[in-house]
Amino acid sequence: MAEQQETINGAIITYFSTASAVGKTLVSINSAAELAREGYRVCLVDFDLQFGDVCNYLQLLPESTVADVQQGIATSGADCHVEDYLTPYVHEAATFYVMASPLKLEEAYNIKTAPMKAMLTQLQTLFDYVVVDTTSMFSELNLAVLDLSTVVIFLGIRDFFPTIKNMSIGNETLKNLHYDQNKLRIVLNRGDSQSDIPMGLMVKTLGGEFYHILPNDFRVANESIKSGVPLVLSHEETKLGQSLRELVYRSTNQDYAPEDESVAEHEMHGGFLSRLFGGRE
Amino acid sequence: MAYRVMLIENDRLLLEQLAQAVQSAEGFQLVARYQSASDALGQGKLFKPNIILLNIDNQDGATLMEQFTRVYPEAAIICMSEHSQAEGVSSMVQAGAKGFIIKPFSAEELKESVETFAKSGMEVSSHVMTFFSPKGKSGKTTLIANLALALGRRTQEQVGIIDADLQFGDMMAFFNLKPKATIVEAVHEIRYMSPVTLNSYFEKVTDHVHVLCGTSAPNLIDRVSIDGFENVVRMARNLFRYILIDVPPGFTPTSISAAELSDVTYVVTMLNGGYELQHTKRALEIFKDWQDYDKRVKPVFTRVTPCDIASQRRLEQALGEPVEAVIPNAYQIVSEAANNGSMAVDIEPDSELSQSVNRLAEKVIGHHHIRWDKP
Ligand SMILES: Nc1ncnc2c1ncn2[C@@H]1O[C@H](COP(=O)(O)OP(=O)(O)OP(=O)(O)O)[C@@H](O)[C@H]1O
Ligand SMILES: Nc1ncnc2c1ncn2[C@@H]1O[C@H](COP(=O)(O)OP(=O)(O)O)[C@@H](O)[C@H]1O
Ligand SMILES: [Mg+2]
Ligand SMILES: [Mg+2]
After folding, report:
1. CATH code at A203?
2. Which residue in A37, A75, A169, A187 has its CB near the most CB atoms, within 10 A?
3. Which residue's alpha carbon is at the smallest distance from atom 25 of ligand 1?
4. How far is it, in rounded angstroms, from Cα A140 to Cα A237?
5. Candidates A25, A163, A243: which one to mutate for ligand 1, based on the most atoms within 8 Å of Cβ?
6. ipTM for the complex shown
7. From CA B166, how far away is CA B229, in angstroms rounded?
């Protein structure tokens, strides 16, 4: 192999919605964890600046945050090394890095878009995947992140009508941004939850077939949040965990095959799964 | 009952023009007209006016108001100006004016104004409440809708909802409204408005509850200036006894300015088994900069099960301060009502939800009286 190195820019996968509490944080954490488990270099960025949950759901106590990055870029410009501000998450063989949201609300309120863009671009040179968790609105920061993203996963949920309306408006607005068609992927979370809204209307509202549908399992979701261990890293096999993995395989263009084959495939990839399925090491 | 109008306008031609408008307004009688306030103060009594249309342009408005309210305690004084100045108006209202009208006006506009002011009175004692939540999906829009209905029902006074959740306002959908105008137009045009014209931007939900609807598309947010928004709230104080403001989640220029303009800010949180309590604590910390924090900021929790005193005490303990209200889990009835756009009629009055909202309404009414009757 030639030694001369091209910089390689990793992919940015952003989870976005125009309704709150749709599972952006849960799904982005599990994406990061799954990609890490597969052996990729992964960074998870918490852009829910004011009330971010990534460190809550992962039980991390970050020492540095995006606020420090902003400060660093302000004082040292391009010499600011964003990797100095990361917090590692380690669970068994999986490791990924978290760029935490600010500790203080005042800091969060004063985050500017330009240094955050610079930060993301730098992270792309360091990681295979940069996964971004967002807030559910069209802020200047979110729009900049959507622009920079390789893939945007728009999460929908079957909630009451006003929420459906907001997701529809959000989708229309996204269309007007004229991204490549395959950049935007619509995923329905809690697809089998109780709701008076018919599935047909959901599909119509969100403009097209769903790229993926995640099942509803509140117990499993909340236990994972409380335990600080992403579902895809948990030893308990759950439909939701399985479906999250499936989403990740698909959105990163790996052929997803049902259990047995995927085990084989992933043993080749790094062998992490064997631990999960027990006794295959 | 006919309105007996006394008109005071210094400009001769304008006086003529306004007099004609009054005379041609149905149900109005022009009993006296003066170019000078001194004449009106000394002579008008002979004609027993019950409405006084008083020019305040280029005048010492405060002194005029003081004199006219003393001499004509029974009459409703409506100030006239060529400009709408939300702040000037509110000081006139503080001084006892019942209303405000931009001149010149037509017979129709006069009638509409007087009817509006007769219904609401220009309230000095309007009580403004902002509903803040750290994150979305807190149940605050649901709470606002139901609390507004409860306040209207219990007090029979005018209640206004301002939907300032600028990107994703839901009030329109909750009440199935098809507004002719929204907060975007209201904020845009506020400089040229009087309270009466602002009133026409509110959509009627019931006889007592009216809504200024939110934007129809998220990109319109750029057209809503904070200054304009603040003036809308100030002017709305002249129209409603109670004003409830829905704001976007988190600390945004809109939510901050709404909270600063409000008598009380409710910090609303839905319990979902995550880290909601921590978020609420952090949000409350920010408000603690206010000296009168205890009076002005009140936490409310929704989706509380069981929804009882014990739960409330537990939350108070966790928070380290009093909790103003706990609202039960009412997902089913709330969703159904909102899906049908029938929030106004569909929530049963003896449901657990209605009961807890009514308790909060009683507290609002109570606070309000204490605040204004014993200054
Ligand atoms: N598939 C699922 N089944 C059941 N519960 C779920 C599912 N996905 C998420 N949840 C639950 O929904 C709640 C909201 O999830 P999460 O915090 O990830 O959403 P969010 O979109 O990040 O919310 P916010 O807009 O507040 O940041 C959490 O309690 C989570 O456990
Ligand atoms: N007291 C409650 N109990 C259970 N669910 C509720 C309650 N109030 C609202 N909801 C539901 O929560 C969701 C968000 O409610 P909404 O009032 O729109 O909150 P917000 O305005 O904070 O986003 C809706 O699905 C609604 O039906
Ligand atoms: Mg989140
Ligand atoms: Mg709302």
Report:
1. 3.40.50.300
2. A37
3. A20
4. 39
5. A25
6. 0.87
7. 11
